[in-house]
Design a protein that fits this description.
The chain is of the alpha/beta class. It has helices at 3-10, 16-31, 37-54, 61-69, 79-84, 86-89, 100-109, 134-159, 169-210, 216-224, 226-238, 250-253, 262-275, 333-350, 359-370, 377-390, 401-410, 415-422, 426-442; strands at residues 97-99, 258-259, 281-284, 287-290, 294-302, 306-309, 321-328. Among the domains are: 134-207; 351-442, no CATH class. It contains 19 helices and 7 strands. The strands form 2 sheets. Strands 1, 2, 5, 6 and 7 form a 5-stranded mixed sheet that branches. Strand 3 (281-284) and strand 4 (287-290) form a beta hairpin. The longest helix has 42 residues, at 169-210.
């Protein structure tokens, strides 16, 4: 593709003066990299926001990749690096992982509510707003389907209750199965009632808010602040001492040791589900619901993954959102770091002020106190969490014994992982056997 055609598509729908300013500074920057680096960075973000505001499903791929990867000019990359990022160019639809361009389009369409600016995330006085209840809706439908399967099973069991004389042992075995099935049906129905009530309340709230007249200012806020939030996210993912240069180029890609494309992230996520299943679930009035946070994959040469919001605004039933850099300078650490901070913040949010006394955060905080460890509890927790997921899950003992026991209890691996670990070391065998004894006792 010719240079002119490429930039015509990149700047499609964007003001001519922004285009001219960008191309002028870009040319000067290419001639004298250091001298014009700051000016180029400034105009890059100006163009980024202009494209982000105009972005839609039918936008040119050049615009989408500028937003998704910071791809200014393919000539800034070697053939090998173009091959490295190839996996990031195509994208399958997913309702947990989003590239920035997909996220912005979804936010504009109203599929996803806008993110809160960092400085007001903790402000609980913000106005009430609707939240995305589609995940609860999916769980509701899943539970209904699960109940219908159990109903069919019960009908088949009842057919087996017959005999000309006294009932045989086989029939009594069927009675036991019927009792279990009825118990399961009661539990499922209770879950269904809870989810139905939550759904009805959410729909009612959404309906009442939609009927309130919106001022033009409110509409602008909901539609156009997301690009500015994304810039904050990218800045935080890079870190204060990181590479602040925003455009994608070979010189800086040399320092990237892992590209967390959506495909690679989804593969990591499948493994993660077995390592920390409880972080992906939320309990709503006693009903456990699978509710992972949204994961936004941002451009920039990232060193940090983090939690932007543990819940959606002030709605404790709304999904949180975490940020993971595509171009990671620290391998998989930012990926696990983001989920670790999310779990910590979510626990704090749902503890209603008692996070230092109760549950996971309470026990971990007490451990820090007892060991006279100063500093931010969250920072200690996240470091230990990364060790738990990346090392301890493979049988490599890196944590203090009290921390391992806290995590084994509150951040349990899937049973298959636990059993495997019990065969690796006596340390895990003891923990696994304690689980088995407890399970036996609870029967």
């Amino acid at each position: 593709m010719e240079e002119k055609e490429y930039f015509d598509k990149l700047f499609s729908g964007i003001q001519d003066d922004i285009k001219e300013e960008f191309l002028t500074i870009k040319r000067l920057h290419e001639e004298n990299f250091s001298e014009y680096k700051e000016q180029f960075t400034e105009v890059f973000w100006k163009v980024y926001e202009a494209i982000a505001q105009k972005l839609e499903e039918t936008s040119h791929i050049e615009q989408k990749l500028f937003i998704r990867l910071g791809l200014v000019d393919p000539r800034y990359l070697t053939r090998e690096d173009l091959e490295r990022i190839k996996e990031c160019i195509s994208s399958a639809s997913d309702d947990t992982f989003y590239y920035v361009d997909e996220w912005l389009i979804s936010a504009k369409s109203g599929k996803i509510p806008p993110s809160t600016f960092e400085e007001v995330i903790q402000d609980q006085q913000q106005e009430k707003r609707t939240f995305d209840y589609t995940w609860i809706e999916k769980e509701y439908e899943r539970k209904l389907f699960e109940r219908s399967i159990e109903e069919e099973k019960l009908r088949d069991l009842v057919k087996g209750v017959q005999g000309k004389g006294p009932y045989t042992k086989g029939v009594y075995t069927i009675f036991d199965e019927i009792i279990k099935s009825i118990g399961k049906l009661k539990k499922l129905d209770n879950d269904i009632k809870t989810l139905k009530e939550t759904l009805d309340k959410a729909k009612e709230q959404t309906s009442s808010i939609q009927q309130i007249p919106q001022t033009s200012k409110d509409t602008t806020t909901s539609l156009f602040t997301e690009p500015q939030v994304i810039r904050q996210m990218v800045k935080k993912a890079i870190g204060k001492l990181g590479i602040q240069y925003p455009a994608l180029m070979t010189n800086y890609l040399r320092e990237v040791n892992l590209i967390l494309s959506k495909k690679h992230s989804l593969k990591l996520f499948e493994e993660f589900k077995l390592l920390d299943p409880t972080t992906l679930k939320r309990t709503i009035k006693g009903t456990e619901v699978y509710m992972p946070p949204y994961v936004i994959l941002v451009p920039g040469y990232g060193e940090n993954g983090f939690c932007w919001e543990p819940i959606e605004g002030v709605n404790i039933y709304g999904r949180g959102r975490i940020v993971v850099p595509i171009f990671s300078r620290k391998g998989t650490d930012p990926f696990f770091q983001a989920f670790g901070e999310y779990r910590w913040k979510l626990e704090k949010e749902l503890s209603f002020g008692r996070w230092m006394e109760e549950g996971l955060t309470g026990e971990y905080y007490q451990y820090l106190q007892e060991n006279k460890l100063k500093g931010q509890p969250a920072e200690y927790f996240i470091k230990d969490y990364i060790m738990w997921i990346s090392k301890e899950s493979n049988g490599i003992q890196k944590l203090d014994k009290p921390v391992r026991e806290i995590f084994w209890r509150y951040l349990p691996f899937d049973e298959s992982v636990k059993e495997k670990l019990s065969k690796v070391s006596y340390v895990y065998q003891q923990l696994w056997e304690r689980d088995l004894r407890k399970r036996q006792k609870d029967k």
